[in-house]
Amino acid sequence: MPAQWRGVLVVHAHGGPALGEPKASRADEDIKRWSITLTEGHAWAGSVFRQGGFSVTTAAEDTERVRRILVDHVAKPRRTLLHGQSWVAMVATWTAELYPQSWEGIWLTSGVVAGPTTCDFRLDLRAIYQHLCQNPPRADEPQYPLSLGLPADSKMTAAELATQVNDCLGVRKPAAQSKPKKSKPSWMS
């Protein structure tokens, strides 16, 4: 709650989905990321969903619950806005549908609202990367379906993966030196 509150409450539904047990530190990270809300004089409330994974309905319930806690125990806003980021834009739209009386507006940033298939572009990027770099896996490594990410038993570290990406694309090199080892297909020109 800012010192000079303008009467607007922004309820934030965080991006994700986060896997594993929820952590309170998530809300701390989000308020830092979205501090402009407070700077502009708006109150901010954010939920850490009670469970990890992709549970849209319980996340929507948690989002409404955090709004009610603020309204019942802190202050009554003149206007309440719902903010959904990334995959939680779907949660925000569902929250607004379940609790339409709670919101005067909904604000989506980089919103995924068409379900999990909205992220299929990542597979497209992976296919292009594989065409250019042919790693991971390299030809001499065990092969696996690229659409599933690294295999569960993979021992590859993030640093090793970053090295493979840099070896191929030169992402850590000056732009003039960052060309893929393999030329792009004609349809990418």
How widely separated are the two ends?
51 Å
Structural class: alpha/beta
CATH class placement of the largest domain:
Alpha Beta
Helix content: 25-40%
**Low-confidence regions:** none
Write down how many β-strands occur, each being a DSSP E stretch of 2 or more residues. 4
Encode the helix/strand succession as letters. Answer: EHHEHEHEHH
CATH architecture field of the largest domain: 3-Layer(aba) Sandwich
CATH topology of the largest domain: Rossmann fold
Q: What is the 3D shape?
A: elongated
Give the C-alpha Rg: 21 Å
- What is the overall pLDDT average? 84
What are its keywords?
alpha/beta; 189 residues; 4-stranded parallel β-sheet; 4 strands; elongated; Rossmann fold; 12% strand
Topology (SSEs and partners):
Blueprint (H helix, E strand, L loop, with lengths): L7 E6 L11 H9 L2 H4 L3 E4 L9 H18 L5 E7 L2 H11 L6 E5 L11 H13 L24 H12 L20
Parallel strand pairs: 1-2, 1-3, 3-4
Helix pairs in contact: 3-4
